[in-house]
From TrEMBL:
InterPro entries (UniProt xref): AB_hydrolase_1, AB_hydrolase_fold, Epox_hydrolase-like
Keyword annotations: Hydrolase
AB hydrolase-1 domain residues: 30-305
TM region(s), chain numbering: none
Protein name, per record: AB hydrolase-1 domain-containing protein
This protein's record includes keyword Repeat: no
């Protein structure tokens, strides 16, 4: 496959357990690690990679296990949080990163950014959370159950739990149309259901997605399928149980939260704090995130780093430059 972005290197790191992880690397300077969410891979940070490299950072963007160009691990129970963290640590080691990293995470990437901070604080210099600051749910009420209580049985994350169910729904649609529905309007649904593709007419592209972008997303997921990424969701309960020892750990790295005003999921769950007032959010998170320095609220949907990339990049770069050296 021909990659659409120039000026970056594509690296492949083999982990200690033998699977191959793909990552994109650009720029030189203090290392910045970008962690994507669902349904995404490295290309979702196409607006951040050149901006951060130009600002004087070494940008590292791995594909989550089984996503993008990373190897698909066939065993469905090998997509737990700690498996993903193990891959991330292997990437840093394989790229000879010897200093602490600045971490930026979106969607479940924010979750993994928090998880990396919990179990390997020695590797982390500061964190930017795109969407929410993560909580480790207690085993008796996982994120899946919490979302189901709020949004009902058709909420996306509940549908994702049954092997094959979401895949069958996705297979009915053209992948490019499905991706456009996810990226442009999924978080507008007050019940956070899997988005329905408009069948009567072709949807217009928002100005932050080109036809080439959409085709690259579609070609990539047509190759990998969605099952590997869905397996991350299917291991949430077991991951929650295994991470019980870290549940109350204070995350005291310097951190920034960038929150989207139209991201429905993060506005209706108490653990994510439903307020859009930065001071209220700071106060609510102070006990577990004592060094959360700033909250920026942007008028955007779930995929804020694409939709409002200039605003997001400005906030990220200003924060990273302000961070004390490791």
């Amino acid at each position: 496959m021909e990659f659409p972005m120039k000026g970056v290197e594509h690296k492949y790191i083999v982990t200690e357990v033998g699977n191959r992880v793909h990552c994109v690397v650009a720029g030189a300077g203090p290392p910045v690690l970008l962690l994507h969410g669902f349904p995404e891979f490295w290309y979702s940070f196409r607006y951040q990679i050149p901006a951060l490299a130009a600002a004087g950072f070494r940008v590292i963007v791995p594909d989550t296990r089984g996503a993008g160009e990373s190897e698909i691990v066939e065993a469905s129970d090998k997509y737990m949080w700690n498996d993903i963290i193990g891959d991330i640590v292997a990437v840093l080691k394989g790229l000879n990163v010897t200093e602490k990293v600045l971490v930026i995470g979106h969607d479940w990437g924010a979750w993994f950014a928090g998880q990396l901070s919990r179990i390997r604080p020695d590797l982390v210099r500061a964190v930017v959370y795109l969407g929410f600051v993560p909580y480790t749910w207690r085993a008796q009420l996982t994120l899946v159950e919490d979302l189901r209580l709020v949004f009902g049985d058709e909420v996306y994350i509940h549908v994702f739990q049954e092997p094959g169910r979401a895949e069958a729904l996705f297979a009915k649609e053209k992948t490019s149309s499905l991706m456009l529905a996810f990226l442009s309007r999924w978080s507008d649904d007050p019940q956070l259901r899997i988005p329905k593709v408009s069948s009567d007419k072709e949807e217009a592209l928002p100005d932050w997605i080109t036809s080439a972008d959409l085709q690259f997303y579609a070609d990539t997921f047509d190759k990998t399928g969605f099952t590997p990424s869905l397996n991350v969701y299917r291991n949430f309960k077991r991951s929650t149980e295994l991470n019980a020892p870290f549940i109350d750990k204070i995350l005291d790295h310097p951190s920034l939260l960038i929150k989207a005003s139209r991201d429905i999921g993060y506005l209706h769950i108490s653990n994510f704090h439903t307020s859009l007032d930065p001071e209220e959010i700071l106060a609510a998170n102070k006990p577990q995130y004592p060094n959360l320095q700033k909250v920026v609220v942007i008028d955007a949907n779930h995929f804020m780093h694409q939709e409002k990339h200039e605003e997001v990049n400005k906030a990220i770069i200003e924060f990273l430059i302000s961070c004390p050296p490791s």
